[in-house]
Specification:
The protein is mainly α and about 100 residues long. It contains 5 helices and no strands.
């Protein structure tokens, strides 16, 4: 009887030990994050290589007038404000036991 229990416990321990060494389904397949790892760094590096003298150009950026830029900036700042939720009213006509 004791040998039977040792065999069962030993088999369960061996299976759990060997199961922990295997790859999971998620580790076997390449995720979109794995496929695009480091792309933003590479893009920034290549853009700097493309135009290394960009810092010497002190001309203002053309394309957005001041009023449109101000409205966009205000809209951006107000997008972080949380709306105040409307108050909720609970009407209680007693308790149904408990507290």
């Amino acid at each position: 009887m004791l040998i039977k229990w040792f065999l069962i416990i030993g088999t369960i321990a061996a299976l759990s030990f060997l199961g922990g060494c295997g790859k999971t389904f998620y580790a076997q397949n390449e995720t979109p994050l794995d496929k695009n790892w480091g792309r933003s760094f590479e893009a920034a590096k290549y853009n700097q290589i493309l135009n290394p003298d960009a810092q010497k150009n002190l001309a203002p950026v053309v394309g957005l007038d001041g009023d449109a830029a101000r409205r966009n900036l205000e809209k951006y700042k107000t997008s972080f404000e949380k709306e105040i939720p409307e108050p909720t009213y609970n009407i209680n006509f007693g308790s149904m036991g408990g507290i």
